[in-house]
Amino acid sequence: MFTYNFKYELKLLLRSSWIQLLTLLLLLLFVFASYNGKQKVDKRTADITSAQTVVDTSDKETLSILLAIEKGEDLNLSPWVTPTSPINIGNQNPRVAAMPANEMAFMSVGQSDIYTHYVLPKVSGDDFALNLSEMASPIQLLFGSFDLAFVVVYLLPLIVIAFSYNVLSEERERGSLKLLASQPISIRKWVFQKIGIRMFWISIMVLLATTVAFLLNDIKSFDGYVLFFVTCVIYMLFWFGLTFAVNIQIGKSTQNAFVLLGFWIVFVLLIPSIINQVSDVLYPVPSRNQLINEMREHKSEAEKKQDQILDNFLRDHPEYAVNNDANSKSFWHSYMASQKIVKEELQPLLSEFDNNLAKRQKWVNKLQWLSPAILVQQDLNTRAGTSKADYENYRQQILNFSNEWRDYFMPLLYNNQVFTSEHFSKLPIFQYKSDKSIINGYRLWGVLLLTSIVLVIVIITYKLRTKKEYSIIQ
Amino acid sequence: MKNTLIKELKELFRDGRIRLAGGIVILLLGMAVWISSSQYHKIKQQNKISEAHERENWEDQGEKNPHSAAHYGTYAFKPQYPLGFLDKGIEKYAGTSVFMEAHKRNEAQFSPVIDQTGLARFGELSPDFILLFIIPLLIILMGYNSFTKERELGTVSLLKSQGVKSNNILFGKWLSLFLPIIAITLLLFLIAGILLSGLEGFGWGSLFLLLLVYWIYYAVFINITLLTSRLSKSSSIALVVMLSVWIVSCLVVPKATGNIADSKYPYPTRQQFTTSVLVDKEKGLDGHNPWSKEAKKLEQQTLAKYKVDSLAQLPFNYDAFRMQKGEEHEAKVYQKHYQKLRDQFAGQASTYRSLSILSPFLPARFLSMGISRTDYHSHWDFEDATENYRIITQKFLNDNFAKNSSYGDWGYKVDSSFWKDLPKFNYEHPSLNKVLEQQLFSLVILMGWLLISFLLLLTVKNKI
Q1: Which of A211, A286, B123, B448 sits at 20 to 30 Å (Cα–Cα) from B218?
Q2: CB-CB: which of A120, A140, A276 is closest to B262?
Q3: Residue A145: which of B50, B122, B259 has the nearest Cβ?
Q4: Which residues of chain B lie closer than 8 angstroms to A289, CB-CB?
Q5: pLDDT at B307 over 60
Q6: Which PANTHER family match (chain A) (predicted)?
Q7: Residue B60 φ then ψ, to 5°
């Protein structure tokens, strides 16, 4: 019976050109989406490279000036560009702190259109106000990107629904169901086979489209390729499970379409946005305006008491005070000291931002199990290295590096040391480390779990109504 | 026609699915309005507090050098336009406060999306989401089988035998879809109007224009739905076709257009932008650098103009004068680079416009944001206002510095009462006329959609 069913389905699908149409559609969607993703990745890589080139060029120049000065040449440089001042180097020769794209980044734009992928932390400037947001047209951010994650999360379920919302009802509406009823197979088994066969074909098509997309974009990660395909299949499995349930529970084609579409809206549009909004209400982040107000007050206080702050600072850091006499205090000495104070005073409020965002994220992580769309989206984002967690990780690393950078120059500044070519070779360097623990396979298991819950519910309710099987055929 | 209308309306209300769908939409809309209005009031409150606080900081600076105050700077907070609570537009992705300081024009910073979880990108349960995405879907669900059901139930021949004009049936069916939608949206907008009427800057004109835009948008969807229903062989095909139309126009086209626009007219990265500004700044006068070539030139010119031999003989503090000249040069540099950015966006906007012929969603989206003053133009309008204020502030401070101190006197301090003399930053949202001017093209395209879809609907014959 299965082989017969298989052949019949194939004939039917080919004759109605469903297979041809869907193959073409999937190919188009996958190729266009992956091209868009790849373009963004290429731009990101090029931007980082060009920033690095600029830094390299300016490094060479600075080094040659330093060497010349060390040889005793007088270059007649103005005090705020001369590289012998440590603060000048700290401000004018920053390092590129970049977050390069991983190989799978093209799959999902995720948060990558909001954040910047390289910054150049300097000695001066407020690192709490460190602007990691990228310059982008907000219209583009509002509409979002047409990437593979979008195709998979939003469109693939719709294709599944359109492909199989009426497998049973169609037979009934055509009148061929009565013929089938005379065959030695139960309706449930038959619908199950039919949906399974369609699932098989659509998986083949997705495999083809994935292969083409990966080949065209020259993606060499085989693991990434397999995992992407597996993700698609598992996600489709959920939607096929749902269509199976709806097919055997509900009667007419249009009703099926109605209900399935309703599920799509709930899982893909409503649940994510409601979870997000409720997280806003439950864990409100203090207003950024409030942060500004507080920062301003502390700054103005600090400004008024600058001399006192510097004295206190030097008392706390006797190592800096050793070589100091009153005359060698420059603007920078008091600036750095008061900046440090302001930063420390703001710390409680700043951590409130971080804590509440972390709490929100935790809450969202708990509720992500309510929707396979969220699970798959997060899964793709984390593997593309474009999830919120990745950018949070990057931000933390930047903050650490920023401190490291400042700490390198502080002793030089307070000891009034001359910056030399030897110092130059020992400057701290930033190396982004991606956090592998963000990537987690459990989300895919979650989708499988949801699928099995759907199937179990179907079987139980079906068992309860088996006696009515005849009425389904009617 | 009246009979058709009544019959169709009865049928719609009888249909359990429609009742359920309609009920859900109204419930969601209610939730969205409630959430949105509470957020709106919270932000408004916060802005008021922050503004007062910031002004206090400014006025309480005590005795200080004006240029130190210029570096201390001041903040402007972006006020919300009352209609922003119906359509939040780009607010989530645009900065909310601008730091205005000496020598530097800053972009608005702290966009709300930074403080949200990754789910924020799925969308938001806000009135504009329901108005733009969900109500068209409701229209489709209500109308996909308007004609196909007559055929499927075999009532076509009955209808024909009655001698009813086919156009009367069409209008009856059209109105039966339009009236419930009108009722829901009118109610929503009236409630919104009452909630907002006390607020500063609110105008009923904008509110009704916004409503009108949505009605046109819905009429377009009704036309396409009925057209598809007329042309389809069966109800289920009509439904699938209409859902595809919805997905393509509301999701696929906007996203794809965004990608195309962005790759054709890319923005520079923040760092690149800063660097190119810096390069241009260095070509001209730097207020803090008296040794540069430009500074020497200015020195010569000023000495010649006032016919004196040294800077100390000038009737004003030359340091402050140079600072102001530098400020003017820098303002020009920023003007040039921000203009470049806008030109880039103008290119993107033309891509959006030309692809609007593929989706009625796009013109409706842009019009709705525009009228709600939550679009990109309004955001720029605010940023421009802050830049003007920054320039005025710098001049105010530098002029005082120049007039009341002498060359080299960096220790000069003004009285603590001086800060109050700086006028407050006051922002007014662009007028409705200005918005319509900016959005004229979207309006034309939306009307084009309406006319063409009507014409097609009237000329096409039922497929029987």
Answers
A1: B123
A2: A140
A3: B259
A4: 46-47, 49-50, 77, 96-97
A5: yes
A6: ABC TRANSPORTER PERMEASE, ABC-2 TYPE TRANSPORT SYSTEM PERMEASE PROTEIN
A7: -95, 25
Most B-contacting residue of A18, A93, A140 (CB-CB within 10 A), to test interface: A140
Counted domains in chain B? 1
Q: What is the DSSP letter of B97?
A: E
**Contact assignment for A357 to B117 by CB distance below 8 Å:** yes
Asked if A78 has any chain B CB less than 8 Å from its own CB, the reply is yes
Segment holding B399, helix H or strand E: helix B376-404
pLDDT at B301 over 90: no
Indicate the pairing of strand A118-119 with strand B97-101: unpaired
pLDDT of residue A381: 93
Q: Which of B401, B391, B378 is nearest to B423 (CA)?
A: B391
Residues 316-375 of B with CB under 8 A from A: 341, 345, 348, 352
ipTM metric: 0.90
Residue A113 has which token pair?
Answer: 């259109």
Looking at residue A326, its pLDDT comes to 47
3-state secondary structure of A339: helix
Which two three-digit tokens encode residue B437? 């001017």
User: Is B145 in contact with A51 (Cβ distance < 8 A)?
Assistant: no
- Positive or negative CA dihedral for B160, B163, B168, B173? negative
- Average pLDDT per 10 consecutive residues for chain A, totaling 474 residues: 78 79 90 93 93 92 90 79 87 92 92 90 72 86 92 93 82 74 75 87 94 92 92 94 85 81 90 86 79 78 72 65 54 77 80 83 88 93 92 91 89 85 89 85 87 86 63 47
Q: Do A144 and B121 touch (CB under 8 A)?
A: yes
Is residue B464 one of the residues assigned to a domain?
Answer: no
The verdict on a CB contact (< 8 Å) between A43 and B266 is yes
CB contact under 8 A, A137 and B267: yes
Query: Residues B29-73: pLDDT tens digits?
Result: 888 888 888 888 888 888 888 899 889 888 888 888 888 888 888
**Three-state SS at B74:** strand
Domain range holding B216? 2-459
The pLDDT value recorded for residue A258 is 81
